[in-house]
Amino acid sequence: MKCTVVGMWGGFPKKNEPTSGYLVEKNGFSILLDAGSGVAAHVQNYIDLNNLHHIFLTHYHYDHSVDIGSFLFGRMISTQLGKVDKTLNFYGPDDKGVKDQVNKVKNSTFHPYGRDSTFKIGPFSITFHKNAHSVETYAMRVTDDEGHVLVYTADTSYRKSLVRFAEDADVLISECSLYAGEDGEKMGHMNAEEVGGLAAKAGVKRLILSHLPHYGNLDDLAASAKAAGGENVSLAKAGMVIEV
Ligand SMILES: [Zn+2]
Ligand SMILES: [Zn+2]
Which residues form the Metallo-beta-lactamase domain (predicted)? Predict the structure, then answer.
């Protein structure tokens, strides 16, 4: 499968660089992981909105979900114009507000999920891990029909259970909101040492650092993750294509 980083900043977008959004594609099927600020605009560099029918939301913080409205209005207007007749499916933690927001727009449907859910979409199978964050949040494990595995942590403090969830992944896209020595547990996020340790213990083949902070020298994140045992570490960049 191919994963394109649409955006990867934590909290708020940079100029022309959105917050979280990852487009995963194989054999003509596409799923989007998260819909943060700027993702609806920038994902169109890679796919026509009328060909994107599945959006998975890890949680409802703005930097992961604020573009729900843009995708809904896009589908509503394109439906009115007769450009698309397929349903736009949103998958997210159960939430009445989001469910009502999505379901009231024609041609859009909300599917709640929990820790035991599995979805199969074309070649993809998607499973979930309940994170430690300030609101209900899930990591996602995407396995394709050839057994290739992409794991996306979304936002979370370090938990041992993440090691099992990310085990043997070909690619781990991990949040890395904090520098080594900063307190991830208190913030509901992980620092670079924790992320490197997670990748090492899980035996992942490639580690991509995402949900990056707006301060400091980002290269220090990669150096700390490597020092903590991470293999093949790189920083996510808007537009980056990852072959999984
Ligand atoms: Zn976030
Ligand atoms: Zn968050």
Answer: 18-211
